[in-house]
Specification:
The complex is a heterodimer of chains A (about 350) and B (about 700).
Chain A: H1 2-31, H2 33-66, H3 81-112, H4 128-157, E1 165-172, E2 175-180, E3 215-218, E4 220-224, E5 229-235, E6 240-244, E7 249-253, E8 259-263, H5 269-276, E9 283-287, E10 299-305, H6 307-315, H7 320-324, H8 330-337, H9 342-354
Helix pairs in contact in A: 1-2, 2-3, 3-4
Chain B: H1 3-8, H2 11-28, H3 31-36, H4 41-71, H5 78-84, H6 95-131, H7 139-158, H8 189-218, H9 231-262, E1 273-274, E2 278-279, H10 287-321, H11 328-342, H12 357-369, H13 371-385, H14 394-417, H15 419-425, H16 429-459, H17 465-491, H18 511-541, H19 600-643, H20 649-681
Antiparallel strand pairs in B: 1-2
The chains are: A alpha+beta (about 350), B mainly alpha (about 700).
Chain lengths: ~350, ~700
């Protein structure tokens, strides 16, 4: 019923608008078309300025309302992210200046030079000087932005500091699996054909002793404040993306092609709760690459801890090898992988070499 | 006698026939040949336009539906179940349906509306009319181009009615999601149909594009040198070149995808375990390869959409400011620069795929370079307005709106093109805001500007101005209200393509804003209905055009009769004596009837430049071929040394032959080009010499 009513009302509004428009056409013919054209021209010219003013006020108002909801009021939660923020402010300054200038000029000219009988058009077909100016100035401004941007880019995509801890992140439809190398600091090899949702979610090769102390977790990833962390990112099925807005970082998870990302967290989750004033604050991992129907629910959580808290947390975990093979029966583990022993080792070593 | 026959008739007879033809044409044309399988470029343009408009309404409606979900995630709308059936059970759109809507909205608007609907309409309509030709180089191919597009439309539409719904993995269709039916319900039959539709679409756009290029190069009327062409034609020409060079790459990407989907190859697939299916046998493929192939079209595609709008806006701004377009050569140069750079920036869509950082840095540099020609264009448009005498026709209003949107959206491109900043903003709402403003809405404004401006030429009637003004102001304000706040959502890291944000601590704070945006989107959509109504009403009942040249414009389409028949000009095609933008020269308001021919010297200079550039171009190609063959030989020698395989000498020979063939081909090209350029400089046009028989003094009015 309401739908019908809404349709009827919109239809009515539509008809009214149309009738008025049609009538205005007849009026124009009565009054003289040239006259009414000029009148319309004045109205539209005036609206140009109105739009300019309202637009600029709107931009300001939008900023008032929404600025606090962005991440900008708080500092980046990673050391590297600060560079992103400073780049962002610089780019905003440059583009903001150009935006305001050109929009004002555009709408002001439109208003100022609206048709008038007294004005004679100025024949101005080209000027090399002017064109050179607005080729060179943008080029210089862009060079500055490119240079700064590329320095940051090479830092972000370069090697992390040596003391960095390493976590492997694997995306799947629709969730994240994290793996820590354990006490030996090295990951065991894996092969995707070993994947078994029941007890081997990453396809670890149990024959590889390096993997026996690896820790595997889901839901929450724990990292340490002030210690660089390097993520080795992969995917089990389709392309996902590890999006970390608070750390200003993002990297795709591509099946078959491991990628990496590193950053240094600055604040623990607890500190961040105070900074943002939000007791429910979490560092969220959002999947930023369309990955299927559950894309929107593919959420992971990062908890940044102090070193002591982190150590305690890790000590409480038992290695995946044991949880998956409670009986630790070597015959069972062997039967599982015997088919695929030759190729996977080769492949996995290739992968590690690439890293 | 068809138009083709006119075009291929002996030069002397052609003109006479064209004249006679025009008169008895009306008696012979049936409904089918006039409105359905028409070979008249003007009718084909209208077919593209109307089909494009149907798609625009469908695509717009889809966006309203998914905005409903975004704005009101907790509410249910019973009427949705009536429209969408099982896709909105209980009045709430399901995630599958949401993603299908998002995907189809993107595909349809990018390809069917803003490529076919924009280029297809205006290239068809304006190229022959503005360069002074009776029709396209191949009217038959032109007709095929439309019907392939129509077939693509039918297949795409039918994909919405298959069991598991249309494709739902985003318009970019990245594998493995798009390759594996088990990964997403839409990746089954829906994806097959999507691929077929896109393949048909590529065929359509190639047929069209080749035709546009051939027409612009070969069929310009006497005196219409390249440097006298209106900017619309330049823009449409570059657009066609972009399409012809990049669509085949997309096509090849799709072919590989079809192989992966149906024939068990592993071009894009490797190391995949799908829940419910298990580990797939495919190994060694690269999912990133598809992205390279896709974006090699995908980025030029942005300019395929944008350039025609730029061209039309340049033309309309100049006509209605009563001033020449400022910096014509710079405008053509910047179009050219944009067209070249369009091919060199595709990987800026892939900064976070893990691509080699060095490669990324090259793409940053090239991407931000595009800002330079874009800035030139903007400042030149502004200078065109400066000290003009502006008439706010609806077309002019939309052109001004285009410039405003192009500035706003273009500037955020500087943010996104800088890879380090893109890491933060990639795939967030910031990107949505950016490309909708600069590519979507701006090009749409270009299209509206074109429709309003050339409507009198298309249908011999005027559209209602009051409705047009209303349409403009609501759309401009609304577009900013919808997309401007999205920048802020992007700065908060809010990802694209989410069905529901309410479980996300970082993003649920935008619920109120989403509601606002959705509401505005609906109002703006309703305002488009004003336009639609205005359009169709005016086609049949609009005020009739009484003057041949209602805008006092300088371009050739306004020298045709008010309702031009097939063949466009009754009698001779006018000869062109000057540039398209001499408005206001020597203080004169209107210039069309005043003849001042450009000097012969300047003409011959142009030909000489063309001649020399052809020589330089071809020489560089030959050197390149020689160089390549040398590298190859070196490599083979090296391989021979390291592998010490003697039997590979036959292979070497084979490659040698290939290189030789290459070289011969290049030499052939070179000679052809020389002849071509020579013929041109000798003032002998290839084909369609009837223009030579036109009178030297075309009376334009």
């Amino acid at each position: 019923m309401t739908a019908l009513l809404i349709t009827a009302v919109s239809l009515l509004i539509f008809v009214v608008i149309f009738q008025i428009s049609k009538a205005s056409e007849y009026v124009a013919i009565l009054k003289g078309e040239e006259h009414s054209r000029k009148q319309n021209n004045k109205i539209n010219g005036f609206l140009m300025v109105v739009f300019l003013v309202l637009g600029l006020v709107g931009v300001w108002y939008c900023n008032e309302v929404l600025y606090d909801k962005t991440l900008l009021p708080y500092e980046s939660a990673s050391v590297e992210g600060e560079r992103v923020d400073s780049m962002l402010w610089l780019t905003l300054a440059v583009t903001g200046f150009v935006f305001i200038l050109t929009q004002i000029v555009l709408f002001w000219f439109a208003y100022k030079y609206q048709e008038s009988e007294t004005r004679k058009v100025y024949f101005f077909a080209h000027s090399n000087k002017l064109e050179a100016i607005w080729t060179v100035i943008p080029a210089i401004a862009l060079t500055v932005l490119v240079v700064i941007g590329l320095r940051n880019w090479f830092l972000f995509t370069g090697e992390p500091p040596k003391e960095a801890m390493v976590v492997e992140v694997t995306g799947k439809q629709f969730g994240w699996i994290y793996r820590y190398p354990g006490k030996d600091g090295a990951f065991g090899k894996k092969y995707y054909k070993n994947i078994d949702n029941a007890n081997n979610s990453l396809g670890l090769i149990w024959d590889d002793k390096l993997g026996h102390d690896d820790l595997v977790m889901e839901q929450t990833m724990y990292i340490v404040k002030g210690r660089p962390v390097k993520l080795i990112i992969g995917s089990r099925d389709v392309i996902h993306d590890v999006g970390l807005p608070h750390f200003r970082m993002k990297m795709d998870a591509v099946p078959g092609i491991p990628t990496t990302m590193w950053f240094t967290p600055k604040y623990t989750t607890k500190e961040m709760k105070e900074i943002t004033g939000n007791p429910d604050f979490q560092y969220e991992i959002s999947c930023d690459q369309m990955c299927g129907n559950g894309h929107y629910s593919m959420k992971g959580i990062i908890e940044v801890l102090d070193q002591a808290e982190f150590d305690a947390k890790m000590a409480g975990q038992s290695p995946y090898y044991y949880t998956s093979n409670p009986d630790k029966d070597p015959a069972n583990a062997k039967a599982d992988t015997v088919k695929t022993v030759a190729k996977p080792v080769e492949l996995a070593s290739k992968v590690t070499a690439k890293l | 006698m068809s138009n083709e026959a006119v075009l291929h008739a002996p030069a002397g007879a052609g003109l006479h026939d064209a004249h006679g033809d025009h008169h008895h044409e009306h008696h012979h044309e049936t409904f089918i040949s006039k409105y359905v399988f028409s070979m008249d470029h003007k009718m084909i343009a209208k077919q593209f336009l109307i089909t494009g408009m149907v798609w625009a309404v469908l695509g717009g409606l889809m966006s309203v539906l998914f905005r409903l979900q975004l704005g009101y995630p907790e509410s249910t709308f019973p009427f949705l179940e009536d429209i969408l059936g099982k896709w909105a059970e209980g009045g709430k759109i399901t995630p599958e349906a949401y993603y299908a809507l998002v995907t189809t909205h993107g595909t349809v608007l990018v390809f069917f509306v803003l490529t076919a609907g924009l280029s297809g309409t205006f290239a068809n309509f304006l190229i022959p009319l503005q360069i002074g030709a009776r029709d396209m180089a191949s009217p038959f191919m032109n007709m095929l181009s439309y019907w392939f597009f129509f077939a693509a439309s039918i297949v795409m539409l039918s994909s919405m009615f298959v069991e598991f719904g249309p494709f739902s993995g985003g318009w970019t269709a990245y594998p493995p999601l798009s390759a594996l039916a088990a990964a997403s319900p839409g990746s089954g039959t829906g994806m097959d149909l999507w691929l077929i539709a896109m393949a048909l679409f590529v065929v359509s756009s190639l047929l069209g594009g080749l035709n546009y290029i051939a027409t612009v190069l070969n069929m310009r009327t006497k005196g219409m040198s390249m440097t006298r062409m209106p900017l619309t034609i330049w823009a449409l020409f570059f657009t066609a070149v972009l399409g012809v060079l990049s669509f085949p790459v997309l096509f090849s990407g799709f072919i590989l995808l079809i192989f992966d989907r149906n024939f068990g190859t592993s071009f894009y697939l490797s190391d995949i375990f799908i829940n419910g299916v298990g580990a797939l046998p495919n190994e060694g493929g690269s999912a990133i390869l598809y992205q390279h192939l896709f974006w090699f079209l995908g980025h030029p595609e942005v300019y395929i959409i944008l350039l025609p709008a730029m061209g039309m806006v340049s033309e309309i701004l100049s006509v209605n400011s009563r001033k020449p377009i400022f910096g014509y050569i710079a405008m053509v140069g910047s179009l050219f620069a944009i067209a070249i750079l369009a091919f060199l920036v595709w990987a800026h869509h892939m900064f976070v795929t893990g691509l080699n950082p060095f490669l990324g840095s090259v793409f940053v540099l090239l991407t931000l370079l595009i800002a330079v020609p874009s800035a030139i264009k903007v400042f030149n448009w502004l200078t065109t307005l400066w000290r003009g005498n502006i008439r706010f026709t609806p077309g002019m209003l939309f052109s001004i709106g285009f410039v405003s949107l192009f500035i706003s959206g273009g500037l955020t491109g500087i943010w996104l093109g800088n890879s380090a900043l893109d890491i933060h903003l990639h795939d967030t709402y910031f990107v949505i805001a950016h490309f909708h403003i600069v590519m979507g809405v701006a090009s749409m404004f270009g299209m509206f500007a074109g429709i309003y401006h050339w409507f009198p030429k298309m249908y011999g009637r005027y559209m209602n101005n009051t409705l047009a003004y209303l349409h403009f102001w609501i759309t401009l304000g609304g577009a900013y209200m919808i997309f401007w706040p999205m920048h802020y959502q992007g700065l908060a890291g809010m990802p694209r393509r989410y069905y529901d944000y309410s479980v996300w601590e970082s993003f649920k704070q935008f619920a109120e804003l989403n509601r606002f945006i959705s509401t505005v989107a609906m109002i703006v959509f309703a305002a488009q209905l004003l336009f639609l109504f205005n359009f169709f009403y005016s086609v049949f009942k609009g005020r009739k055009v009484t003057s041949q040249n209602p805008y006092n414009a300088n371009t050739l389409e306004w020298t045709t009769p008010i309702n031009p028949g097939h063949g466009n000009w009754v009698g001779e095609i006018p000869e062109v004596h000057r540039w398209a933008y001499d408005y206001g020269k020597d203080g004169k308001e209107f210039y069309l009837s005043n003849h001042t021919s450009r000097s012969r010297r300047k003409q011959s200079l142009i030909f000489k430049t063309e001649f020399i550039s052809v020589i330089i171009f071809q020489c560089s190609r030959i050197t390149g071929a020689l160089f390549l063959s040398k590298i190859r030989n070196d490599k083979i020698h090296r391989n021979q040394k390291t592998n010490s395989i003697t039997s590979s000498s036959s292979q070497t020979k084979g490659l040698h032959v290939i290189d030789k063939v290459h070289l011969e081909l290049y030499r052939g090209f070179f000679l052809c080009h020389l002849l071509f350029a020579g013929a041109k400089s000798g003032r002998i046009r290839l084909g369609h010499d009837y223009t030579a028989f036109c009178s030297r003094h075309a009376n334009h009015r």
